[in-house]
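Q: Convert this sequence to structure tokens.
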Amino acid sequence: MLAEDSLANVLYIDLNRKSYRVERRPDLFEKYLGGAGVASQLLLQECPPGCDPYGPDNPIIMAVGPLTGLFPLASKTVAMFKSPHTGNLGESHCGGRSAVAIRMAGYGAIVITGQSNIPIWVSIYGGDVHFRDAATLWGMGSTLTVGRILRENEPGAGLRSIMRIGRAGEKLIPYAAVMTETYRHFGRLGLGAVFGSKNLKALVVSGERRLSVADQKQYRKLYDVIYEAAVKSPVMQKYHDLGTAENVLPLNEIGSLPTRNVQSGRFEAAQAISGEFLAEGYLGRRIACAHCPVGCIHIAALREPYEDEAYFYKTSMISYDYEPIYALGSMLGIAEPRGMLKLMDRVEAEGLDAMSTGVVLAWATEAQDRGLVTEQDTEGLKLNWGDYATFIKAVQHIVEQPSEFYKTLSRGVEYAAARYGGEEFAMAFGGNEMPGYHTGPGAYIGYLMGARHSHLDNAGYSIDQKTLVKQDMSPTELATALLAEERWRQILSSLAICFFARGLYKPELVCEALAVAGFETAPADLDRLGEEIHNQKFRFKMREGFSFEALRLPKRIFETESPVDFDEAFIRETLACVQASILKRENGAAN
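A:
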């Protein structure tokens, strides 16, 4: 590593004392690169065993990688914490300006501990950290308003990243998100609630450092290679044209689009909420994360009249991606794109994770259909598939919690089903609500075994689609494929590379880029490191009580036809193979 590189700087912020310090941690960054590797080590060091996720000892860790600020698509910040949603490993990735802002401020990681005695926001400008009173922002009805106020009161326009929570985070809802630059999110597993528990309304970061490289000539040459590959890639062109919303119609075609709480894998109105339809009728603009030439973020422009003013209209700019479309569209049977966008806007304003919110509402709708929940429970609301207006009211109730039922919903679908029944159709895996893929066993096993119970851990849904013509993959083969992918993704997330670029950043190219950044490594070294980082995540999970045997399987996944056939025995056997592999590696490391 270059001796003067700021990547090894870790900023420690103590909210109790309103103090901060910087430590050089080359021991972490030289071995674990950055991102997920460094964050998982810091989590093991800073998070006491068995700590309360809402307690002051639960750290918020944000880390970036050695390629951040140097190469295209190295644009993610990795956040780690103990999840209030699962009581275990919390990991969330976010783009926007966050990663480049942290690096330009002079840090490779930020560790936030303690709990402020008043609502505050923290502003980081290079080496200066300011603690500002956020009392006037606390309780504000929309995260968009909070963002606007912060932009007006903080310098650094064009360079800064503004990360903030909504009312959901303040109310400690365990699937509350952190919004970044309006259209990006630390979305899963409740980072917003951890912010709220610390009375931390927002985090603003900016800086103007210069980064050094080992070989300027080689850097320019390699930069051009990566940039050209990114802008000319057919896959990246797809992300630019339609974004991840392009997935709606293909998944629907093969019967993999979760519909009405996964009662079906096909939605008869898929065309009306597809990426193609939204691009043609609603696309307002495309934007990109910092240092990314792709521009995959698609923003819908929704023009509506004011209720009490004739001939006056307002235009709302609403970000949409595949996951919110699935969760707040097909999963709820919503066929009206304007209604779906309005629901997305409400979820965004409240600061909730879209996927968890959609799955919770889908369970509640089916539970009411089956008589497990009554209108007395729902404060008079009758939840019907496709009724977006009622779902919007239900979202507000989840945040405001006027009754025991909504307090229960605010804790997630796993908790709600344990309280009211309907566990067989409560679509959570490892305590985390499902992503939008009903493709077969690879997807569901991937959610269950993933370090953070996410489709992004190991892309099991992709393995399902590749085996459509070869449905004889054994449990051992599937476990091996899932683990291999997840371990390589530990490298990508330690470099803080966007997973959309995983086909571009292959091991050889990664090693070339790292050499320019001052790291000497080989593909075999990366393989070993990916496995080690994966193992240390499970070290934390098992320390905090994670158990493969305790994982619950919703019966619904076996009842609804999917492209690849499977049964419970196959899933259990595959999970046993995964567990055996992880324990074997852990025992080997211990010896």
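The chain has a mean pLDDT of 95.
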